[in-house]
């Protein structure tokens, strides 16, 4: 199965960026991890955060 890793990375960065500016300054560390993460690491981070990976699946038609 293939995923839209660019979209997932953007969404995770938005999530942590919002947290960082909403009173959770330590989210900058998570943001940095997402920026450097491999595709596989992104999937692990998203899973840990409880993100539905189904919306990032790329369908082959």
Distance between the termini: 13 Å
The biggest sheet, with number of strands, parallel, antiparallel or mixed sense and barrel status, is: 2 strands, antiparallel
Strands of the widest sheet, in order across it, are: 1-2
Compute the number of strand runs.
2
Kindly estimate the percentage of residues that lie in beta strands according to DSSP: 5-15%
How confident overall, as mean pLDDT?
92
Helix content: 55-70%
Overall 3D form: elongated
N-to-C order of helices and strands? EHHHE
Radius of gyration using CA atoms only: 12 Å
Structural class: mainly alpha
Determine the oligomeric state from the structure. Answer: single chain
The residue ranges in which pLDDT falls below 50 over 5 or more consecutive positions are none
The DSSP helix count reads 3
Explain what the structure shows.
By secondary structure, the chain is mainly alpha-helical. The chain is 59% helix and 7% strand. A two-stranded antiparallel sheet has the order 1-2. Helix 1 packs antiparallel against helix 2. The model has no long low-confidence stretch (mean pLDDT 92).
Explain the layout of strands and helices.
Layout: E1 2-3, H1 5-20, H2 27-36, H3 39-48, E2 57-58
Antiparallel strand pairs: 1-2
Helix pairs in contact: 1-2, 1-3
